[in-house]
Amino acid sequence: MDEEYDVLILGTGLTECILSGLFSVEGKKVLHMDRNKYYGGAATSLCPLENLYEKFGKGSPPESMGRGRDWNVDLIPKFLMASGKLVQLLIHTNVTRYLQFKSVEGSYVLREGKINKLPSTAKEALGTSLFGLLEMRRFKNLLQYMAKYSAEDPTTHEGCPPTVPMTAVYDKFGVGSSSRDIIGHAISLHTTEDYLRLPCLETIKRVQLYYESISRYGSSPYLYPLYGLGELPQGFARLSAIYGGTYMLDKPIEKIEQVDGKIAVTSQGETVIGKMIVGDPSYFPDRVKKVGQVVRAICILSHPLPNTSDSLSCQIIFPQNQVKPPRRHDIFVCCVSYAHNVAGNGKFLAIVSTQVETSNPEAELQPALNYLGVIDEKFVEVSDLYEPKDDGKESKVFISKSYDASTHFESTCNDILDIYERVNGKEFKFGDPVNVETVCGE
């Protein structure tokens, strides 16, 4: 036991790499290890395409897929909200200097059997078939109310303080089921109807984030990095390295134990000591609990998704009450393409996901798969969802949550900021961006 670190980190998922970067910037001595030979952990982007076929036991890709190195296939699909917490973290740390993003071209929702674009401009709102004229007026009034709503300013509440359930706000404005579906699932991005009984403030904040994000680029609230999501953890790993963090890939972990109030980790016969440890659930099977499963289907297409105006990227949300048979959880489709340097020329990647509710997970995706058109190849995986059994404050073992079925990073960022607060005993503050250029000497 020859060297001691302030923080040991296991796994190179986005959560762990962001925390590694933040801790290193603060001057903590960080050692970051992963059993894999690549960054990203469970949320990596596989390149070349041969790696994807090998992972799912499908032999070699056909020649029609083009060059394997042109592919970077995300195993867990997510978009970034343009004004969301992950973008704030990227700007705060200047990790944006390592990445390039494209705006996702559109956001769509299933309503009464048809794929409809969510209006992103006043002109689109007037032409949408999602609402009748009377419902459109009620919908517009409700959105205007939410836009100016402030928890700290009672004059904006109009009889609906932050603690009333969301159903009370809907009832106040007399909106129908179409407006409730659009606001609850396609805009505020709740995955079940549970939010209806919860305080309205959370939903209102989500709506405000959605439209603030749209105002940045106009077509949708989402961004996506060129070359895939695997670029994100690598960017934060570079940040950590700049500030003295040490990374070790291909390091199988043989033992994790507590010694004299500290954490000892043994890998390949060598042991290191840390004052605390942070890691993903796969490294701590005895300290986590299973809370569900997610099923995902990675689909390779030779065409854009039908009814999306030939978009090179988009999201489609299938609200749980719009599919047959009705479900408890929504189904999501994330589509990106060759335009993002993640697929061969002319190819598209559509990843369908939802939380598992039955003993036949793949069949649960079928209502969305039916809308994709011809599928060249499909790869299906079911993943367990884990959460830590405790907050780690006493044991100094801080464990992240598994990636959920949602198609954005807000829940992941909430987990990151929660772990940060538990580790440091204080809330993370978004302040002036870190001056990485000065550190680099550029």
UniProtKB/TrEMBL annotation:
Subcellular location: Cytoplasm; Golgi apparatus, trans-Golgi network
Keyword annotations from UniProtKB, A to Z: Cytoplasm, GTPase activation
Chief location category: cytoplasm
Gene3D superfamilies: FAD/NAD(P)-binding domain, Guanine Nucleotide Dissociation Inhibitor, domain 1, Guanine Nucleotide Dissociation Inhibitor, domain 2
Function of the protein: Regulates the GDP/GTP exchange reaction of most RAB proteins by inhibiting the dissociation of GDP from them, and the subsequent binding of GTP.
Protein family membership: Belongs to the Rab GDI family.
Name of the molecule in the record: Rab GDP dissociation inhibitor
Species of origin: Clavelina lepadiformis (Light-bulb sea squirt)
